[in-house]
Specification:
Layout (H helix, E strand, L loop, with lengths): L11 E5 L5 H6 L5 H11 L5 E5 L3 E2 L20 E4 L2 E2 L8 H18 L5 E5 L2 H6 L7 E6 L10 H13 L3 E4 L2 H7 L4 E3 L17 H4 L4 E6 L8 H10 L4 E6 L9 H4 L4 E4 L4 H10 L2 E4 L11 H8 L4 E4 L11 E4 L6 H9 L5 H10 L2 H13 L2
Parallel strand pairs: 1-2, 1-6, 2-4, 3-5, 6-7, 7-8, 8-9, 10-11, 10-13, 11-12, 13-14, 14-15
Helix pairs in contact: 2-14
Amino acid sequence: MVATPTTSPVTTVVYALGYRTWADALRVGSAFSPERIATRLRDDRSVERAVLVDPVRSQLRRLKPDRPAPPPFAIDPSREHLQPRRWRRGEPTERDEAVAVQRRLDRRLQRHVDPSSTVLVTSHPVLAAVADRDVWRDVAFYAWDDFRGVPDSAALVGWAYAEVVARDVNVVAVTQAIVDIIGARRSTVVPNGIVSADFEEQAAVPAWFAALGGKVAFYAGSLQRRIDVEALQDLADDLPAEWTLVLVGPMQEPECFTDLATRHNVLIRDAEPRPQVLAMMAVADVCLVPHVPETEGMSPLKVYEYLGAGAPVVATDLEPMRGLSPHCRLVAHGARLAPEVLAAAAGPRATAAETAEFRSAHDWDRRYLAWRAAILGS
């Protein structure tokens, strides 16, 4: 049943994260949209009360020594951080269990706030699917990715998307592709973004990068099957001798990169601290977004960061990449990257004025205003 509209004012926003906790986000540099939204919601004084909710985790994790605790979400009592627990481990992927877990969380959150004056926002599709629309002022699903890609969860998330539509949940997504996949009546696209201040003081590049010499085609991000590895193999084979293809990021699916790693002009490195990654972007000759077509639902942070760093970009021609900048060259899936990489390296780089304009247009302060308007109507 869909809730009857109410005129009670919104005083509270609850944001329930999906799949990754606040601590998880801080450990990888707080660069992605959930934590950017959470931080701005925390600092938004037009919201009387804000509650950040971690995904449900196992009680057993408390029995093991952990890494040092990250900084707290807030010290202001009107800004809270809940860390719900259950005894079982792992993210449930079977529907009955997942629904039970998220319904318990929904009831707990209803007891914690006055739901009649609260908008519940969640990035967990199952919570969005089962949250009681008759109780909450409104329910919104913030889809910062297409969560059908979560391991072993495609069927569960597909079911949740259908429930989101049936229950008239408000959908705010990072791409039009996700909006279209879900098909909700109420929907808004708010793409990914950057923080302009991150680029104002450039760190030194790592010593190994400085020692490369020659020209560099650079990729930063998780090393997984979302990358068009065949396109990168062709690129490595096609590049002139003075070029090195560099990939930096956590290796999540090493079996995908075995052949690429054998190329003499390919260097694959583990994740580096975020300031050093931004510095490498800024000095690379060309930065790359070689994604497979199945990633069209993504709003890749890296393309915004590359352009925010002033680098020329060559990317697979997918809808989220289009119209961002004249310094972002698009290549059809299946076409070879090398001609555009060489043309991008030979062409003029973005001017300081162009880079500053791009940063301002895509800064998270501006993105958050669009997100808040979509969630709260103001």
